[in-house]
Amino acid sequence: MARRLLGQNPDTLEEARDIVCSVVNTLKTSCLLLDGENVNFVKMHDIVRDVAISIAKEEKAFLVKHGVKEWPETGTYEKYSAISLRSKTIHELPDELVCPELHTLMLKCSNSKFYGEPSIEIPDMFFRGTEKLTVLELNKVAVFPPSSLGKLKELRMLCLINCKLGDIAILKHLKNKLEVLRLRGSDIKALPPEVGELTCLRLLDMGDCGKLKVIPNGVISKLHRLEELHFPHRFKNWKATIGNEEISKVSLDELMSLARLSTLDIHIPHPRLMPIGFGLVNLIRFNITVGGPSFVCGEDYSSMAVMVLNDIDDDFNILERLLGKPKWSIERGGRYPSRSFNNLTQVTVSDCRLKYLFSPSCARGLLQLQRLVIIGGSEIMEAVIGNEGEKDEEIITNVAFPALQELYIHSVPAITAIWDMHTFPVLEKAADSSFSQLRMMQVSYCSNLVNVVQGFPNMEVRGAEEIEEEQVDYNYVLQFPQLRILTLYHLGRLSSFNDTSIITETRPLLTIHQVAFPALEELSIFSVPNITEIWDKNLLPAESFCLLRSLKVWGCEKLMNVVPSHMLPLLRNIKTLDVYKCPKMEVIVVLEKREEETQEATNKDIIMFPELTKMTLYALENLKGVCAYKSEDQLNFNVKMKKIKMKATKIRVNEEDDKEASEDDNNESVCNKDESEGDEGDSDQDDDKDETMRVKATRMRVNATRMRVKMTIGCLGDR
Description:
By secondary structure, the protein is an alpha/beta fold. It has a domain at 2-205: Alpha-Beta Horseshoe (Leucine-rich repeat, LRR (right-handed beta-alpha superhelix)), CATH 3.80.10.10. Helices cover 16% and strands 20% of the residues. It contains 10 helices and 36 strands. The strands form 8 sheets. It has a 21-stranded parallel beta sheet. It starts with a helix and ends in a 14-residue tail after the last helix.
């Protein structure tokens, strides 16, 4: 397929990639190909493969063999037009490969003298009889290279994967046709200047070349047709763009001259290496790491759009230099988003000294952002999006992240809100698209975070008098329609999911009274000491939490109950309920005062948590019971209940219970005394009776003192 695509001369590699994807999808639809481990791989059933090889051998003169022990005998392969061989035992190749019709050769040898060192070498005259060769792939062989390689004038694709390489300056003789050069994983130490003569080159891959130390200045900039470029992530010998240092090293300036570049894989050790005005507006696929250690996204690089920023000082304003110039457009009255990274799908930021990660105009350009990770270190970051330095009229423009699926914020001590109160979209239409794809949100070790959705219910916008009254919805429900997992961890100041107690001096433009999680399946709240309630009846839409299956509460010091009774109809799908180390916890389910008058007539038919199969209560020293209902009333658990675990939990009882417990203890003592005074001769006969009475007395004491939990379990396990 690669040879056929090269023969069709597609205008761009993107066009060629689209053609390949179209063909692959057609074959998948016909069940001739199967999905692989990821989007870059496919699988083929053994039967289909055998049939395909048979047809290719008979009709197209293809030779495909895997696991061959030695090179085919002379006279058996010369007629083939394509050869693909894989072997773990081949130690020697023929001196000359006489295949006048051969256009494709793929050879992979897995045998090595020791790890990482190929043991098979290419003879000097090996390629002399293959003048029509257009595609050559060698994997795990020694290429020094042979002089006959320079005779392959028709060669358009050369892949030297995991090879032991010598001086590859001979490649200059392939300058008229060579379009793809892959050196991935090879031990090349210096890229020869002659590579700059390959002016037809569209793809240059130096990924995983860990020993590469030198790329001469000017080589990359000469490859003006280059569309795809991969640097090794350990490469650090860049020429700085500041100062008068005259060293023959590659510089980032050279990348700016590559007008056709659409795919870039690069690690920039320090932002000082970036030239003024550095921007790559045509990138479609990229894996860019700036500062700190490199980030390697593995074999999926061709389909990813990843940017990682480590240890970035705010003085360099790295985000605006990479994502465009939003301030430039604002100064000229424009409201257009940055288009530098419209296809960005993942951003990971670590230890960056930024007050705000994105300005609103920067954020508006990230329409495809799917995953946002912010990890620790910054003592000044106050919010993910902030409006510092931008005009007021820009504040009301949509910054919704409509494609965001995963949000992780870890160890950001100064952050007080995930979104600054001035920057969230204020019109109903804009809010509809916000968080529409969010499936996972984890916030941990953010000691100053007060509200998870801070600012939404108290939106303050200057110039609000210019917006007509009918445009505003004061009771809008903030929806997280796709959120499946929500984890809150070590949030010292967090007190609620939203805060309606803050009163602003100006009338809020958008007041969100309700926050809905209609698809949430897992809710975990760990070490949030100031939270006093999880659910607010006045702020809860009817469809919220209806799919919740797992609820975990751990280390919430001020929480006195977990589930108010009005939540029982919504939490009908809960299967697992875990409550750990909440010292003020008195009951798990609490009856609200407003319902006390009507509960007697209705609660007999209520089944708490009808899908519950496991409940764990651990270290709840003030727990009075599971349900705070009158003793004559009963609420039933589901008959599917498999396991109740109560460990190191002190159940507090009233005086009557203490009295019963004392009487039970006395009764047990009397029983034991009577037993001890019995006839010694009958002791053997009375052993079973004594044991039965002791067990009975112990059960009575436990029932009176430790298990006065107001609940009825219809059946444990299967009926």
